[in-house]
Amino acid sequence: MYIKMATLANGQADNASLSTNGLGGSPGSAGHMNGLSHSPGNPSTIPMKDHDAIKLFIGQIPRNLDEKDLKPLFEEFGKIYELTVLKDRFTGMHKGCAFLTYCERESALKAQSALHEQKTLPGMNRPIQVKPADSESRGEDRKLFVGMLNKQQSEDDVRRLFEAFGNIEECTILRGPDGNSKGCAFVKYSSHAEAQAAINALHGSQTMPGASSSLVVKFADTDKERTMRRMQQMAGQMGMFNPMAIPFGAYGAYAQALMQQQAALMASVAQGGYLNPMAAFAAAQMQQMAALNMNGLAAAPMTPTSGNTPPGITAPAVPSIPSPIGVNGFTGLPPQANGQPAAEAVFANGIHPYPAAYPAAYGQISQAFPQPPPMIPQQQREGPEGCNLFIYHLPQEFGDAELMQMFLPFGNVISSKVFVDRATNQSKCFGFVSFDNPASAQTAIQAMNGFQIGMKRLKVQLKRPKDANRPY
DNA sequence: TGTTATT
């Protein structure tokens, strides 16, 4: 349809551009009259555009070209109603693209077919883009996001994969600045039904060579979703991702509520005889401490905040978990900590290492929680070199949160990630923890490497840098 | 040994 219309429009272009100003292309007649019977004799000096005019997006424009430079290039396809180079809102910097509206729909179609991907402007390494602006598509319900592509696959490859399900209006591989595929693409069909058919047939249908999971085919993010995504990324960069790490910040009350909640959970679970992962861990920790005759001081990574605070309880000690978790009758407390008010075990980083250390948690947990701020999912973040740990032989039950809990006592954990098998959702029993400084990482290694949990001993090492290929 | 990426 597009091609046919464009062809017809081409034939009419001279005539049309001379004789009409949009009146011939009124909505009612546009469907079948396009290009065939522009009624002549309605000239106007006021710039007017067709009601069905198309706003075009023009991409890959050299940044040294402004509106007046671009005008001649596009004018040859028809009378221009509006041409605006996109500029950065704050810096005013040329963004390398523009919006262009012709007075007539036909001019836009003609320009698109003549120019889109057809030539490359000086200084650009990719061809010019001329296509209807996203704002024109009205609802992104025909556009698909395609993920888990092979990075070698081209636009044509993707087209071939999708063409059986409908008319593809647009197909774009997402690429980084270097031009390398990001392994995903957008495919836009003429209709929602076509897009849906492609999803039904292709999503999960195959796994591309080199991809870590099967093909993803879904509707592309809406503007709103895209905005949300951006906000999340920003929040992550600003370090707002983890309420536990900022107990005295804006979310202090919420963090504390979380801790109380968790403490309550642990208490009730312990009473029920089932050990949640943290309780199990705590039990194992105590057992180990007993075996090594640690008194909680030797490896203490952090110092008390004040002189009258009891000397550092070694990180993972959990003084006040109610105690069916004791192993072999060992109830848990190093001598120095035994009998001390647990709530005073505040560490240098301001974090109570374990929520169970809050006496307040027992008995008055049911008070209303403050309105929680929206929980922003933690994004994986690598710390600087020397701050990232690789941890192997984690208990099967450990998730990101438990992993973080386990390492929080050694410093500021900026990220924790347990790898999960995508098919089964089972932990692969290894993960990463990142601190914001190397000393915390070293302390954590000293304290936790070889640490026994159940039948296994944790392996805690610096994460292998990306370039180093050899295993340990 | 940081997996999935949204013009």
Corresponding CATH architecture of one domain: 2-Layer Sandwich
Report the major sheet: 4 strands, antiparallel
What is the CATH T-level topology of one domain? Alpha-Beta Plaits
Radius of gyration: 31 Å
Output the number of helix runs.
11
What attributes does this structure have?
472 residues; Alpha-Beta Plaits; four-stranded antiparallel β-sheet; disordered N terminus; DNA-binding; RRM_dom; RNA binding; repeat; Nucleotide-bd_a/b_plait_sf
Describe the structure.
- The chain is α+β, with helices and mostly antiparallel strands and 472 residues long.
- Among the domains are: 54-132, RRM (RNA recognition motif) domain (Alpha-Beta Plaits, 2-Layer Sandwich); 140-227, Alpha-Beta Plaits (2-Layer Sandwich), CATH 3.30.70; 388-462, Alpha-Beta Plaits (2-Layer Sandwich), CATH 3.30.70.330.
- Helices cover 28% and strands 17% of the residues.
- The protein is built from eleven helices and 14 strands.
- It has helices at 2-19, 27-33, 67-75, 105-115, 155-162, 192-202, 223-237, 252-271, 277-292, 400-407, 438-448, and strands spanning 55-59, 80-87, 94-102, 129-132, 143-147, 168-175, 181-189, 216-219, 388-392, 413-420, 427-435, 452-453, 456-457, 459-462.
- The strands form four sheets. The chain has a four-stranded antiparallel sheet, with helices on one face. Strands 6-7-5-8 form a four-stranded antiparallel sheet, with helices on one face.
- Helix 1 crosses helix 4 (105-115).
- Mean pLDDT is 69; it is low at 1-44, 241-277 and 282-373.
- The protein binds one DNA strand of 7 nucleotides through strand 6, strand 7, helix 7, strand 9 and strand 10.
